[in-house]
What does this fold into?
Amino acid sequence: MAKINKDYTKLKSSYLFSTIARKVREYEAANPGADIIRLGIGDVTRPLTPAITGALHKAVDEMGEAATFKGYAPDLGYDFLRKAIADNDYRKRGCDIADDEIFVSDGAKSDSGNIQEIFGRDNVIAVGDPVYPVYVDTNVMAGRSGVYDESTGMWSDIVYMPCLEENGFAPQLPQGEKIPDIIYLCFPNNPTGATICKNELQKWVDYANEHESVIIYDAAYEAYISESDVPHSIYECDGARTCAIEIRSFSKNAGFTGVRLGFTVIPKDLKVEGVRLYDLWARRHGTKYNGAPYIIQRAGEAVYSEAGRAEVRDLVGYYMENASYILKGLKSAGYSAFGGVNAPYIWLKTPEGLSSWEFFDELLREANVVGTPGCGFGPSGEGYLRLTAFGDKDRTKEAVDRISNLAKTM
Amino acid sequence: MAKINKDYTKLKSSYLFSTIARKVREYEAANPGADIIRLGIGDVTRPLTPAITGALHKAVDEMGEAATFKGYAPDLGYDFLRKAIADNDYRKRGCDIADDEIFVSDGAKSDSGNIQEIFGRDNVIAVGDPVYPVYVDTNVMAGRSGVYDESTGMWSDIVYMPCLEENGFAPQLPQGEKIPDIIYLCFPNNPTGATICKNELQKWVDYANEHESVIIYDAAYEAYISESDVPHSIYECDGARTCAIEIRSFSKNAGFTGVRLGFTVIPKDLKVEGVRLYDLWARRHGTKYNGAPYIIQRAGEAVYSEAGRAEVRDLVGYYMENASYILKGLKSAGYSAFGGVNAPYIWLKTPEGLSSWEFFDELLREANVVGTPGCGFGPSGEGYLRLTAFGDKDRTKEAVDRISNLAKTM
It folds into this structure.
């Protein structure tokens, strides 16, 4: 008789976005014609740029001719893309990363979900709180979470690192008796928009090397960094090659959320119990994955072309103008708001006394604006709302004006 | 201190294709200018057809315009593709499968590797022998294999179902004391090219329902079926909705090995320990996967258009002519050869006394043709060689002529 993976059944149903969708649906049904602006989901809205669509068309034509047709891609990625990534994202920034330390994939969500598989079940993981839910959920599914406590919203075996206003929404080095074996860090941070300066990140690298922990560094929002002392890669820190895996995405810089391309960096110096994680991840790719599509790897390559770089800079600039407008507008209206400088997310404190969901409801009802309740990302997110900068410029301004006007009435 | 997944280290290194590549390299170095024909790897060679490249170009254009740009795809696939699949591959054949029982993915390799994750570690799995290595390797990585026995080439906890000449290279219902909980079946079969008639497949469905086992039915080569009593889907059998998962691919019918698209079917009636596997797989997709690219789902849809269906039929016809030529040519030259009628693989018996690798070496040396040693797919593959029909027509004929001439000298 077959048996299911019982760890799957421990998962709380992901009510966050479905609850949001239901509330919006109900509001719309009760208020036909309401002009609702959505700043909730972190999905891009601007089209692919000409350098990228040009590369896609060219690659499609190649696939239509026998002489240039491509079958199975190399499991770990085409050399042309691995080289473009290693050159531009790493070596140009002084990071010592070889072409073949880049593992191309279909996106950062897959990689950040799958990476835990190369580790034993008996690892203690640590996550920021609030946090991108994939880190926690995939470890629950793998049996590393222990028991869920409804009263705290926490799993018994997971180390939570609260990201609060008093610490700039950045996790602090664990002080408790539990030393985490695997530490998930995400900078620039989703959902808080916080960043970390190089000195602070160096402390994490030193901590990991000292305790033989592994850092899984999610840098999916790296392109949004605007300040000079914020590291673009964990490999800017000394010693990161022996303790850190870095995960990156083309989704948020080049608008690839619906195109699917990302990569993971595992330096060959990173060993756990004497085994190179590089080899384990290569084995996983070889066994359970068949490479990213040729045409999409060509699109990724185009992101690093001269035209592509300029276009992508403009794309990020567009969203960052939105972020800046949201941040400044809300602050001048009297709100406490964070993030938005090195990240496309604004972390908005709810007006006094309101819970995340109460403020969500108020915004929907009174301003017809949809955000994401911070409590959906972890218990320390209670009392906040996440707004994203990925919308249309005029609509985003309209949303900010409405939220600002709302402040005058509260 | 971090710990690795020790089950990963149990895996035998996949020497098969790397050993083949090394032997060919060495032969070429020693014999410059040798005209080598590769019938080893199961990768397609014909270009994408016009209906498919047309759909890709159109979708790329949509992605380049703000009004038609698509961000994140639905995790489980776009409705237009799920409907096209359910209509054409199932309901038109009388199989009762709903649109939303189709889970679109980046390919059958990923799905057949990931599907084991929704089952507990304590399941006994059964596989054909020889077999597509992904089924075994992913269960080794998940800790279900037990210990490897070098002398037999088998894992202690896996039930092997020998596929031999006397049983038409189809596995027989397990007779031993170990009742498997999860049964992998692949028809048309890779590597033997064998098929199963509907009556025989019905026995497997009945067995699974009786023992509450789950069948994972890999039908990646379904498009190559040419005989009328061979089922195209396991859902043609009564009762399959309560015991079977089916995995399909666009790789081998539409030439998508480098495009990446496949799907898994899980009927909502399939429950294990009272839990719908449908819900577990949906949860996996939602947590660890972000959907197949929009442009590629549109290409998949085009496969089912009127023009696409005709083009794909021609494509399969091209390869099946190769298969037929190989099968007939080798038989008339005195070889024992199997498969090739409902599958793009020919399972060639080595001349008396030769092992798989000895015959591989002989073919490489004397005919400059590369096959795949059958022993690489499992112990019962010893004494066979797999040839594929995915090559160029003229080169394939040339290879057959050379192998035939070789017979005369042996």
